[in-house]
Amino acid sequence: MPGRRLPPLSALRAFEAAARLRSFKRAAQELSVTPTAISHQVRALEEHIGLRLFERQTRRVALTAAAERLFPVLRDGFDAFAEAVEALRAPPQRRALTLSATLSFTAKWLVPRMASFRQACPDLDLRLHASDDPVDLHAGLADAAIRYGRGPFPGLEAEPLIENRFAPVCSPRLSLRQPRDLHEHMLLHSEWRHPTADTPTWRLWRERAGLAELAGLDVDAGLRFTDESHAIQAAIAGHGVALLSLALVADDLASGALVQPFGPALDGYPHWFVRAPGVEPAGLAALRDWLRAQAAAGSAGAI
Fold first, then answer.
1. CA-to-CA distance for 208 and 10, rounded, in angstroms?
2. Residue 7 and residue 53 in contact, taking contact as beta carbons nearer than 8 Å
3. Is there a single domain that holds both residue 234 and residue 148?
4. Predicted confidence (pLDDT) per residue in 224-234, tens digit
5. Please, what is the end-to-end C-alpha distance for the chain in angstroms?
6. Count of C-beta atoms within a 10 Å radius of residue 237
7. Interval 154-194: pLDDT, tens
8. Helix or strand or coil: residue 169?
9. Looking at the structure, do residues 179 and 257 belong to the same domain, yes or no?
């Protein structure tokens, strides 16, 4: 099969642009060349096919009958080339990160803020890994994590994100007014996996409160939950009084679903932002900055 006898591509491009724009000057601007170059290319094409393509006028050019036949073929061809090349372009790779956190922190702090995250980081896909078991960051099972504890965390880079205080909270329907009212209501307990002497429990709260009327309060009785978020839901439903992180129930306190009827509040450990040292995947800085901003807004009483 004989090869194609085509004029130079540069000449065809120059003619197509000039014919479409009806101007050598505008064609030159589109192709980033001079009008003289467009004129030379068109003249070369005319010599190649042996026909005139343009009638040169004062301010514009007009197509000859031959040009009227050639132009739509070239226009459609260049359009098809552009569409084919664009279809082959690899779609831009979206950045994706996995953030691990406890079940309660994920449910009560992260999930309600996802609209804010999408607005702040529209090009970043976030996977929330909810587990009370610490994930192995060195193995790459998550890019970062939110952990509660005293710190430091050996082998990890950590920065305190949210300070925690724990206090009695309940539904406003229970009408608690003073600590002695606890004798009339069920205590709700969150079970800690690794309790210490500083773990915020009802027993520690009674000790810190130092009130004589609480001496007979059975701080071991009541309803127990292995997931703090379930204790929160039970408190909202009016099933009793829970000793909860004020950071995790900030939304519920603001909406009036829960109230803090009295103190004292116990100091807890911070929630930390942790990651493996020397690992900085794309988007991690943006995620960290968003978490910092949300934590600062929460500490100021805003979501």
1. 86
2. no
3. no
4. 999 899 999 99
5. 72
6. 11
7. 999 999 999 999 999 999 999 899 999 999 999 999 998 88
8. strand
9. yes
